[in-house]
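User: Run a structure prediction on this.
Assistant: Running it now.
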Amino acid sequence: MNKSHDYDKILTRLTIILRRLYEGESLSVTELAKEFNVSTKTIQRDFNERLIRFPIEKIGRRWRMQPGFGIEKIQDIDNLLTLEILETIARGIGGGFAARSERLFSKLKNKTLAPIRSYVSFEDISQYAGLFKLLEDAILSHKSITFRYHGKERTLDPYRIVNFEGYWYLLAKEKGGVVKKFYIKEIEKAALSKETFEPEEGLNKRFDGALNAWFDPNSKPFTIHLLVKKPIVKYLERRPLSPTQSIVAKHKNGDIEVMLEATSTKEALMLLKGWIPDMAVLAPQDLKEAFEKELKKALSFQTGHDAF
């Protein structure tokens, strides 16, 4: 068997899949298997192992690029994606080979694709490919899972694998309980259960509105009313803060007012902190007061350490 030919086929398939994801398509494992004349297990391995470092997510039975990571169709995209995939595979090998290849890929991308650079950082989860595969199988087949987490044995219904700020989490519902987030690297002794579950209607839709890792899927979302200063308006127009974002007012000075939903004060505060000082809370009042308190705390900490 010509192994180099096999690698060429794999690379070609991965490049096509990744390009389509970046261009905004939502892809089905079954449809891709038919298109490339391979098994569904092969396509599942593509997503779970070969493309796992990219900002992709699974919604229901289809894969897509996470919101905000799409790119326009450009002439050199195939070259960029080819390098990205090869670099990802090399990192998974580890050791000295990974270190040498990283330096080489860095030089290649700097010289040939300087206008197209990615600064999105994802933690290395190459050694957890087996766990990701197990979790995916459980989600697809609606099977409960068992695992040990922070010293406690748990039985849960898994719903989604998500990435927040580069870190991977499992969203799962405890039997007869609530939905919780579990940091995947801290899950131990995971196994499929013989039990199946019926996914709760509407949960996945609520997950779509998550702003960051501090969202609370068990709480009813509330509306945030924000004043956004002119210098950052263009960024919110290019990439909304949330799928629930809507512009409700435009001021003559270029400022705008937006509304969006959050599930907890902590979730909202973590979002707001990234836009200081160009964003202010208009409502609700308790969030406004909490944000002001955080700002005062930060200022106090800064002024108290100016001597250093």
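The chain is about 40% helix and 25% strand.
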